Amino acid sequence: xxxxxxxxxxxxxxxxxxxxxxxxxxxxxxxxxxxxxxxxxxxxxxxxxxxxxxxxxxxxxxxxxxxxxxxxxxxxxxxxxxxxxxxxxxxxxxxxxxxxxxxxxxxxxxxxxxxxxxxxxxxxxxxxxxxxxxxxxxxxxxxxxxxxxxxxxxxxxxxxxxxxxxxxxxxxxxxxxxxxxxxxxxxxxxxxxxxxxxxxxxxxxxxxxxxxxxxxxxxxxxxxxxxxxxxxxxxxxxxxxxxxxxxxxxxxxxxxxxxxxxxxxxxxxxxxxxxxxxxxxxxxxxxxxxxxxxxxxxxx
Length: 300
Hints:
It contains 13 helices and 2 strands. With 300 residues, it is mostly helical. It is a multi-pass membrane protein.
């Protein structure tokens, strides 16, 4: 039974990452007619509606502590993470953001060690982490080995990685409540949109429904809402529930490689041998981090 749960967890993580790795393409196409906050609002608005239709049953009564965790997950995993990432992209290079965001598993491991009693950190996790980060750096720069640091943008990207780690910890705690994963994800989306509303009055936002008359816009926003949000947050939260926050977060290493492959197939972009080496190193890092070895855990 345990083996079946592990397989289901890994499969859920792989499905999530395969889709998340392609969202860059859809977002890039939508940014022609939409602002980042508009994409974010429509994406999770659609995701929330889909989850309500898919599983219309109300979540049973929760206490204040549980509601606070749902609110925290919505604030971190939906509102803050995507806002910080998008704003970071306006200050620094996309390659910088891609590399920095990929350090999220490191923060997940640290926070899990501090705040989760049943999460273990393996020594090989850190070895795999450093190998994967080198690979991710090669993928993102793709042969253009020019590093341009921007304190504001790079700091925002680091904060985004930290915020995602907090979301991962909260998701792990929420998974222990015994609620249905679709219901918990739906609750998280609700709070994420709730915290997003004040931002709509600060950043450029307009409904502009006529933009959805263009097939390319409706297709990509539905892909982000149905696939990358409704489906993927459920599968990701399922993976966290079955595998734990640390082991699931390691799959984030695969995102840059999938993005590059998708860019080649969809946008006909070129790839250098340096990026290919980066993808190999990323997969090696993932493999090493996932290997079972001696665990290091806090004394109980």
